[in-house]
């Protein structure tokens, strides 16, 4: 019958005549027809066509949200599907693709061999997905596991996806390499190879015929010399700590032959002393770049990788030989990267919000630059988040060297933050005045400043209140209208000059007075999770700002105490210069390398300074 919505009013009456009374009665009484009655008695999913059910089964088995290794069952998903009923078993056995996913390490024990054999047989000649990940098992079960993996790799030539993320003993890794060295992989599209770090691969893999369809490549511990020539259609390249590093120019030469790359991830792949390079490579399809290396190498790579459209980027600074086992990046090995938009010129970011985090735990940390899609503190997107990431607990013996701050803030300078309007800075330890002025000199459109921790606030106030002949005082946030302060002790003392100290609260009042006298009075001051600012002192601040809030309450509603107000205005410098005021490491010049030389003092002394 034609679609009734496509008929005119006059045609509807004509169409209704073709529907007999008998047909209408049949539709109203389907129980009179045995076939319809049987169909209606079935659950809804059993009424679906065979092709639809097959696709549902395939999506269930290959879903990234489901992992047989994390399942509470002892049987792979495909076997559980095929044992629901006779109909589902017949459908599943007629679908070779459903049986083409092999995870030999998902089931441990004697049955792992039986499952692997069944999957290989029922998948017929359909290209395989072979995924082998690290797994700790006892010696008894490891025998069955190795046999199952060996059985799966006998069919490696059929592999469409081959992921080998770890090994089960040095000798077994050598056997895997020997097997992969002599075969061809005509169907291989995704190859991830991360066997033993001590494994020496003397001959390239896949010498039997190469990998003509390869699109996604991830290699850990081993370089490109262990692989056949890369096909030009490669989309993803992820190199993670290879034995043999190359110069920046050599890496750019390799990348220039891969015009379709969408993802580039390089971790400790470049030689430490690579000479400067001026060999830009343009990419029309690039979506993500992740680089973790020495600062000079990061800069050289980012200056020569030229995208033609907005991309995502993650840049991490590595200190050579400091923490050899820490892996902060890897596209195929873990999810990384967030949004970063380029306008066209390298190094220019049309951002609206900048976030700088310099929080430092009592262990060595590495610098990183990331861009977040959905900032949790503001409704402006995108925003740049620059900070220092912590190292897992096993590396707590390493202490932080604050010279990393210099690299972080130089990154801000290089980014040319012309369009930043919202700035978020967090630093528990003192953030020097020159660093503030040098890093954020170009952010002249900032109208909202969020500061967490006293170290960042002290550095900011000192940069504003201390005369500076090189930068002047009118170049730091002239458009500032709102200010958010969190986690600050306003009674804490800090040094503003030779023999002169003050408190954070008094310095904040001086800053507000200065802004008001210059005709750039703040519209809003928000203080949250802060300490030791009396009610009267808050009202004193309110004299120089339109609105002020303390712990989400309007300061006007808190009340005034004259004695507290006098105390706030009358701090004595004579009581502010004791050595105990500097136990947390605040003060002048803490970012210089001289204070962090290796001479004298051990890890315990460094940790005490950090506390």
Tell me what the structure shows:
This protein starts with 8 loop residues before the first helix and ends with a helix. The strands form three sheets. The chain has a 19-stranded mixed sheet that branches. Strands 8-10 form a two-stranded parallel sheet. It has 18 helices and 23 strands. The chain has a domain at about 30-95. The longest helix has 15 residues, at about 140-155. The model is unreliable at about 1-30, about 320-355, about 355-405 and about 560-610 (pLDDT under 50). A hairpin with a 2-residue loop joins strand 19 and strand 20. The chain has about 600 residues and is of the alpha/beta class. It is about 30% helix and about 20% strand. The radius of gyration is 33 Å and the shape is elongated.
User: What is the structural class?
Assistant: alpha/beta
Let me know the average pLDDT. 67
Specify the overall morphology. elongated
State the end-to-end CA separation. Answer: 81 Å
Biased composition (Basic and acidic residues): 562-572
Biased composition (Acidic residues): 573-582, 590-611
Region (Disordered): 562-611
Keywords:
single chain, 611 residues, alpha/beta, 19-stranded mixed beta sheet, 18 helices, 23 strands
Element layout with pairings:
Layout (H helix, E strand, L loop, with lengths): L8 H9 L3 H8 L5 H8 L8 H13 L14 H6 L3 H8 L7 E2 L8 H12 L5 E5 L6 H15 L5 E6 L5 H13 L7 E4 L22 E5 L15 E5 L7 H9 L6 E5 L13 E3 L4 E6 L1 H10 E3 L3 E7 L20 E3 L12 E5 L8 E7 L10 E7 L13 H13 L6 E5 L6 H8 L7 E5 L1 H12 L16 E5 L6 E5 L2 E4 H14 L4 E7 L6 H8 L2 E6 L2 E2 L7 H8 L33 H8 L1
Parallel strand pairs: 1-2, 2-3, 3-4, 4-5, 5-6, 6-7, 7-9, 8-10, 9-11, 13-15, 13-16, 16-17, 17-18, 18-21, 21-22
Antiparallel strand pairs: 11-12, 11-14, 14-15, 19-20, 22-23
Helix pairs in contact: 7-8, 12-13, 13-14, 14-15, 16-17
